[in-house]
Specification:
By secondary structure, the chain is of the alpha+beta class. It has helices at about 10-15, 55-60, 65-80, and strands at about 25, 30-35, 40-50, 85-90, 105-110. Helix 2 (about 55-60) packs across helix 3. The termini are far apart. The protein binds guanosine-5'-monophosphate and zinc ion. Zinc ion binds next to helix 1.
Amino acid sequence: MAGEPQDDCLFCKLVAGTVPATIVRESDTTVAFRDINPQAPTHILVIPKAHYENAASLATGAPELAADVLRETQAVADDEKLESYRTIFNTGSGAGQTIWHAHAHVLGGRGLEWPPG
Ligand code: 5GP
Ligand code: ZN
C-alpha cells in the first residue's frame, strides 16, 4: 500500500534505524542525511519517512508530505549556509534513479553548471 514501509527498500531501513546514516535533520515526517557518494561539498538527501517510489507519486499520494520534503531542502541549505543550491529528483533509471523511495538531492558548495548533464 502506498506510504507503507517496504522490506526491500534501503531508505525505509534507514528510516527504521536498521541501516546507518549521517543524519543532519529530522522532522516528524522527513529525514535528511549525507549522501554516501557526494557529488558536491554539500550533498544531502531529504526523504519522506513514508515510502513513495518517486517525487510524482509522493505528490499525488501525499501532497502535504511532498511540501514537507521541499520545505526541508531549504532548511538543509540554511543549516549548510548555502546561498545557492540545486534540488534534484531523479525519476526512472534513465535519469539515474537507483533507489525507489522518493528523495530530493540537495547539492551546493560549488559552482553548479546549467544546463546540468
Ligand atoms: P538516485 O540515484 O536514486 O537519484 O539517488 C540515490 C542516492 O543514494 C545516490 O546519490 C547514492 O550515492 C545514495 N546512496 C546509495 N546508498 C546509500 C547509503 O547506503 N547511504 C547513503 N547515505 N546514501 C546512499
Ligand atoms: Zn522506502
